[in-house]
Amino acid sequence: MARANATFAELTPPGAGAIAVVAIRGVDAWPIVSRLFQPAGPFLRPDVVAPAGTIRFGHVRGNGLEDEAILVVKPGASPPWIELHMHGSRAGLEWILELLRNAGASACSAADFLPNPPMKWTRLAAQSLALARTERVAAILLDQYNGAFSGALDRIRHSLQSGQTDDARRVLNDLQSNTLLGQRLLEPWKVVLAGPPNVGKSSLLNALAGYQRSIVTPQPGTTRDCVSVVTAFEGWPVELIDTAGLHSADDELEQEGIARSREMAQQADLALWIYDATSFEPIGPSQEITSRKCLHVINKCDLEPQRRLDDVMDAFRVSARTGAGIDALGSRIARELAPVAPPAGSAVPFHSECSDLLTRLAALVDSGLLAEAGQMLASAGA
To answer: Inter-axis angle of helices 352-366 and 370-379, to 10 degrees?
Structure first.
């Protein structure tokens, strides 16, 4: 099919939403839209563009399907700029985009569609902001959208150009110190609940999550696979992962669950090693877990202890059944994961492209290739 002189883009950001907006512009935009859109009223003429400011309710039809939509002709645009406002389901949106492609229109990103595209870092921040899970994360991403990260890059470039290498290194080091936190704004921190069978790991996960996510029974070994739930502590997104009890087992299925538990504990940002306050012989974590960041938690503290666990250093005492200590444990988890939160307005490398740029930039600065570092920043939009 011959390409039409028309370009379209999805203007609404990624993520769930009730309404989706698709815009199309170009000389052939009106003929394409007028063939797909059937108004609830007088027909639209494909050879005469509706007046600027027109808003019409109707249906989009094509490929044997139809859906309600509102057509808007934007004022002050030449060639015509037309928008279709529709239900926000992903399937319906993909259907509309396919109809436009089949009509010969060319797809592009929302940033490229706009008359004055935003800078790369602003665009990435806007995309990330739409996916923020918590108010705290949204506030950090909003700072980046308003220029915190690009401003820090600009300062590094000016410092390099003026020979203030120490200042450039300091700003660069400050940015890199927040790399892990930036990675965890949209991809939650991983916290594994580990320990021997029947210490209450599943009950503790449910208590921390605020609802029953894991099955809880008195029978040891109920959890055979890793069960996860995403929640937040003090505004930081956290994925809690309930694991099979670590012990010697003959059952093949149970052995596989234990192997996965060990693997998840090694990959986690933080492990909670759970003790049973009523156990005669409390079992401590293995070296493979203590070699990583590990927080000791004594559960079932509402019951009569069989043995005092004073030898467990810095242990956190909770009761998953009564909720005692759960809020404090959540706060402690947040402090373990993010000991120093960036102040308002701070630059944070919030996207993988940010951290990749900083890694390459640091290598150039460390090698004394300052001119090349400045050129890299200039091409990166700083």
So the answer is: 160
Q: How far apart are CA 271 and CA 283, in angstroms?
A: 15
Residues 241 and 308 in one domain: yes
Q: Are 292 and 194 in contact (CB under 8 A)?
A: no
pLDDT at 254 over 70: no
Same domain flag for 332 and 193: yes
**Is the residue at 156 inside a domain?**
yes
Question: How many CA atoms lie within 13 Å of 2's alpha carbon, on the beta-carbon side?
Answer: 3
Do 146 and 43 share a domain, yes or no? Answer: no
Q: What percent of the chain has pLDDT over 70?
A: 83
Please state, in angstroms and as integers, the Cα–Cα distance from residue 223 to each residue in 32, 108, 301, following that order. Answer: 56, 47, 22
**Total structural domains within the chain:** 3
Range of the domain at 280: 189-337
Instruction: Give the residue with greater pLDDT, 250 vs 295.
Output: 295
pTM score, two decimals?
0.70
User: What CATH number is associated with residue 95?
Assistant: 3.30.1360.120
pLDDT single digits (tens) 1-16: 567 799 999 988 766 6
Q: Compute how many other C-beta atoms are within 10 angstroms of the C-beta atom of residue 300.
A: 24
